[in-house]
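User: Run a structure prediction on this.
Assistant: Running it now.
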Amino acid sequence: MTVELSMMMNVLAVGLEINADDLDRLRGQCVRDVKKSNGSITFKDTVAFQNGR
């Protein structure tokens, strides 16, 4: 799983232009989400968050 995750991250990193500040903010938000949800985060939840819901 770790190899597959690493591959996916590299594919995304090549195609997206994300600056370091945005990445740091995203990491902080994700850490808070994981702590708040006990690690139970769905793709549906993430889509809702990204769409401002």
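The mean pLDDT is 88.
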